[in-house]
Amino acid sequence: MSSADVIVIGLGSMGGAAANALAQRGLSVLGFERFWPSHDQGSAHGGTRIIRQSYFEGVEYVPLLRRAYEGWRQLEDQAEAKLVTITGGIYIGDPEEETFTGALSSAREWNLQHEVLSSDEITERFPAMRPADHAVGLFEENAGFVDPERTTAANIRVATEHGARLHFGEAVLSWTATRGGGVEVVTRHGTYGADRLVVAPGAWSAQLLGEVGAPVTAERQVMYWFQPGYSRGRPVFEDYAVGRQPVFIERTDGNEQVYGFPIADGSGGGIKIGFFHDERPTDPDAVDRTVLPFEIARMQSRALELFPHLTGPLLQAKTCLYPSAPDDHFMIGLHPEHSQVTVATGFGGHGFKFVPVVGDIVADLASRGRTDLPIGLFDLERPALLG
């Protein structure tokens, strides 16, 4: 039976980061992933993920985001790869809506550089956008996006360079905490042992974590790329592209929240946009990846409320999975019954920007059973998970 100090189940965004952090600390790491490296079957694909610090989801996240930003720079240096593009970010809402008020609270609490803009000021600065007349926005200069596929590949490469043995196309069938305080992991190719285990299963949380993972729901989400309609008197390509258009999040008049990105792939590209939560639970092994015409029409109708000239064709649409907890906060900690097992899940919708710091947190927990980083919000036994 092969052995290691730590086995990591799931080598996507968080598991890959954990494997990297653990390997760099000198531990022998064995990892398993059911799919191929940087695959498109889970939650970490589609070319871009937003990074930001003025966090409307809660002021508690900001210290971790500051640490994550340091981690992004470190990973870029280690992998010799460009992962981060800073574009600025605009978070638009009704004056009392959480998208705006939550971002403003975080910015003020942590003295983050920001500007508050009226609807007219948003349009003046970012001509492609036409928010509702009464809307307000918080602009954060230090926001932007990261490349998820390159990030996962970078973590895998650096982890491997530090001795990690990573198996792809090898799904884990089961794991067991052993009497001696170690773990045993069974795949279709064999049985493996280790002193400690990290489970970062993403959308497969219920299958691999039993009752601990039961609160996590895998939601089917769709990302869309629409091309603007260009003509005389309308915004031009540059108004939609990196360098002029920031990443954005918007919710006004009770509409569903949307998020999106500037054109990042040249003049033939499109604005990427999606709904933040579509509330469509799915089986990750049987997700419907066909995007239907009514879904496209619904998304384009919503997009036109913010970008009135986004009238060109749909360039592509891709599905992804959001593994989310009931309160939309992450789940990170030692397994309540097996202290040699570290759990990291529930990152759907807003987790990717935390990849470097989550890798460090998980490495702390797996190597010494605790972390000095603030993770109380992510307790595996908090009331929201026990209802």
Describe the 3D structure:
This protein is an alpha+beta fold. The chain folds into two domains: 2-45 and 149-213 and 327-386, 3-Layer(bba) Sandwich (FAD/NAD(P)-binding domain); 84-144 and 218-324, D-Amino Acid Oxidase, Chain A, domain 2, CATH 3.30.9. Helices cover 28% and strands 27% of the residues. The chain is built from ten helices and 19 strands. The strands form three sheets. Strands 1, 2, 9, 10, 11, 12, 18 and 19 form an eight-stranded mixed sheet that branches. An eight-stranded mixed sheet has the order 6-7-5-14-15-16-13-17, sandwiched between helices. A three-stranded antiparallel sheet has the order 3-8-4, covered by helices on one side. Helix 2 (62-79) crosses helix 9 (355-368). The two termini are 40 Å apart. The model has no long low-confidence stretch (mean pLDDT 95). It comes from Mycetocola manganoxydans. Its cofactor is FAD. Residues 5-365 form the FAD dependent oxidoreductase domain.
- Classify the secondary structure makeup into a structural class: alpha+beta
Largest beta sheet, briefly? 8 strands, mixed
Outline, from the CA principal axes?
globular
Assigned CATH architecture of the largest domain = 3-Layer(bba) Sandwich
SS field, number of helical segments:
10
Q: Give the CATH superfamily of the largest domain.
A: FAD/NAD(P)-binding domain
Number of strands: 19
Stretches where pLDDT falls below 50 for ≥5 residues? none
CATH topology call of the largest domain: FAD/NAD(P)-binding domain
